[in-house]
Amino acid sequence: MTIHLDAAAFKEKVFDFEKGGDWNYLGDLPAVIDFYADWCGPCKAVAPILEAISNKYDGKVLIYKVNTDREQEIAAAFGIQSIPTLVFIPKEGKPRSAVGALTKKNFESIFSDVFGLTKGVVA
Fold this sequence. Notes:
The protein is 33% helix and 20% strand. The protein is an alpha/beta fold and 123 residues long. The protein has one domain: Glutaredoxin. Helix 2 links the parallel strand 2 (31-36) and strand 3 (62-67). The radius of gyration is 13 Å and the shape is globular. The model has no long low-confidence stretch (mean pLDDT 90).
């Protein structure tokens, strides 16, 4: 299941960007944040892949979605200039981002590199 975040939930579950300071992920599981908009064609192409990942890795990886039209404050805080932008957050360490409609193979490669998960991420 993908989880939609507003600014308050983002600050509670991911990172309190208003406090500033160094990156400090607040979650207990690795996460993917999909910065998207409802009108965005490439965002719509990524959505079913993210849904499949969220089902396959339920309880192991969190999939968050942030609507950049509604949550402009979050998008601005993270310098989101193109959508979709996907941010991959390991439990420890710095997040990595990718811009554009990723394929299943792209997700597999990133999940392996960032989260240490093996191939076959997406069914």
